Amino acid sequence: MRKISFxxxxxxxxxxxxxxxxxxxPFMYSxxxxxxxxxxxxxxxxxLAVIPMIVxxxxxxxxNICQVIYEKSKLxxxxxxxxxxxxxxxxxxxxxxxxxYFVYAMFPDFLPTWLVIGTVAAVSxxxxxxxxxxxxRSAGITFAFFGLSFxxxxxxxxxxxxxxxxxxxxxxxxxxxxxxxYELSKFSELLLFPILYPYVKEKAGKSVYGxxxxxxxxxxxxxxxxxxxxxxxxxxxKFPFFDLGxxxxxxxxxxxxxxxLPAWILVAFIKTSLFLLVGKIALSTGFKRVKSNVFLLVLxxxxxxxxxxxxxxxxxxxxxxxKTVITIFLIVLGVLLPLVFCFGKGDENEAE
Amino acid sequence: xxxxxxxxxxxxxxxxxxxxxxxxSLSSCNATGKYEKRDIDEKIIVHALGIDMTKEGKFEVTLQxxxxxxxxxxxxIDPSKANSATVSQVAATIPAAIEQCETDxxxxxxxxxxxxxxxxxxxxxxxxxxxxxxxAEGISLGTFMAYTDITAKEILNIKVTSGxxxxxxxxxxxxxSQKNGTSTECELIRHIDNIxxxxxxxxxxxxxxxxxxxxxxxxxxxxxxxxxxxxxxSDDSKNxxxxxxVEGGGGSSESESSSQSEGGGSGGEExxxGGGSSEEAEVTAFYIDGAVIVKDKKPKSVMSRDEVIGLSFLNNGIxxxxxxAKMGDTLTSVSAASVKKQTDVSLKDGRIVIDVxxxxxxxxxxxxxxxxxxxxxxxxxxxxxxxxxxxIDKALxxxxxxxxxxxxxxxxxxxxxxxxxxxxxxxxxxxxxxxxSINPQI
Lengths: 352, 442
Known about the structure:
The complex is a heterodimer of chains A (about 350) and B (about 450).
Chain A: H1 6-23, H2 32-49, H3 51-59, H4 65-72, H5 74-106, H6 113-130, H7 132-157, H8 173-185, H9 189-196, H10 204-230, H11 240-247, H12 257-286, H13 292-312, H14 320-341
Helix pairs in contact in A: 1-7, 1-10, 1-12, 2-8, 2-10, 3-14, 4-5, 5-6, 5-12, 5-13, 5-14, 6-12, 6-13, 7-12, 8-14, 9-12, 9-14, 10-11, 11-12, 12-13
Chain B: H1 2-26, E1 43-53, E2 59-66, E3 84-91, H2 94-105, E4 108-110, E5 116-119, H3 127-135, E6 144-148, H4 152-157, H5 166-179, H6 188-197, E7 202-211, H7 235-241, E8 245-247, E9 254-256, H8 278-282, E10 283-295, E11 298-303, H9 305-314, E12 321-327, E13 330-348, E14 351-364, H10 370-398, H11 406-413, H12 415-423, H13 425-430, E15 432-441
Parallel strand pairs in B: 1-4, 1-5, 5-6, 6-7, 14-15
Antiparallel strand pairs in B: 1-2, 2-3, 3-9, 7-10, 8-9, 10-11, 12-13, 13-14
Helix pairs in contact in B: 9-10, 11-12
């Protein structure tokens, strides 16, 4: 089994979360203050939520959660595998819809959205087909590109930031609760880690905290830059992160959104391929007789087919039901199952 | 062996759809699935938009665009002629007018490189305009938005022969004016931000044109106090001002031709002859003079140049400004090299008192003794104080408009008052006193 490094795992987990921040921050739904408080509380909850997964990893460093459960109960194992695959399809569906919305809103004349999403699905299929190592390397390049383009945009915006743009509201309890719930539904690292940790060479447990720390820093910085630069425009902006690029200018280049665009596409591609891979690994654990790449193809087609009606009908935001189902899956698969199966005797070759 | 062959075959097969989909993506096909070639010369690169209102309440949109035939390494360019062209259309909404302009030219307008949105003095309501630009595809948030004392169409029809294109010159004028405080911040995002925070209040600079044959360049065409914003002008005056008019296919269509004649390329949107009318030749420059106070998203009153400078001092928007200081009978001037602002908000007897302390570092334009420097500095400080007071009297006392970032100061200093401000800004603004003190640094 080809393995990835600690750093690559951190980047993979980080990129899978930062996609939402890059694509769509609905500031219009609640105030920035509520968002930041909700985000901070949610990150603290996430730090606690990953503990059962880390304990499970320490006990079974070479087996993913599906393998652990399958060995104890075949039926429950198969069920877990199927639910993991289903969760992966739902996460990709959400990604495709957000991605489609961005393309639809920003480039309505250029490309049919179904084709753009189809291209992302096809490329992600190919990346997942190549395996975790190929995705991890691509993620490294993507992270470097994302970091560099973001730094360039921030430098170009320094002169335009002003503290007088900051207008805050007293946070409301209901809004904070909504933000915590909304943020939790985006915590897809909970699905990635229990499947991918056997592929990490060392310190897999710490990689989750590394990704959470990185996420915390980036989201704080992005929010601060958005608030200081865009001011109350945030309340009506559909894509604040992208708007930073359209507002940033240097002596040579008039607008820098072109810097953010490739990074954003690459992040979407990395996230899709990761979840396709997770679905493939889960299903091939439960159904050993079928070739794993068949599952990959089925998952890609399923994810595309699920999102296609919404894309064609231009229904971009996912509904309450979708969000609730994803959140339930995240909690069950990422917290409850590891919590149940982290007790008992572990494997001999304990990690770290 | 057979399985291995099948795998290789499958890999090859998979590569094909991926490549096909990529080619589909890269070659721009439109939303209906038809192939549509989209080279850059098949788009109108719009540099400036002008918006006027007709008597019937319709929008007259003027697009100033780059004439691509006049540029490029292989095309001879006559630097004495401008390479911009304009097209105008009238419609009930802004997108409809733009669409008609596109139909006239047979090309799609690309607003992503727009640098200026100019509002004619007939524009009475900013709401539909801002709504359009907030949702407009790809428009830069840094685009300048300003008023003009005539029609936006007239300003954009003027062919500027310096700079790469006309809108670039206009933008540079705004940038320079912002540095010395004669223009307020006029980026689209700042207007949206102000309007969002203050129930529809912002301030927009006014751009005017100078005619050099009738008057000297220092002499201005109009005084800002004479202008009445929000009034549509008669069709006669409109016809007089427009030049090089070429009647289009539709009834109200007016397409303006470019004044850049190119060496050999085919016409594109160029339909008229080069040169220009007599009025066009008269105009050599633009200047910023005063600003329009917009309240409830409607133009309310006009600020003079001095009041705008005072406002810029108060809003910390001055990078360099020459200030006159009278020493006995002689008039001298000093440069305000840097301005530092300190603000304190307090409540006194039911009044909201905002103390603004400006520390201004001076640079002297001629050699003075220490005593003279102090005296000149003091005189310049008095002058700045007068300018600031004029701005306060005009905007706050007369118009009750929040163009001094009062909402932000209240939000940061007294949240209870800020909440009251959100409910009833008019009442709160009546209770605001701004005290200015100037601390000259020699």
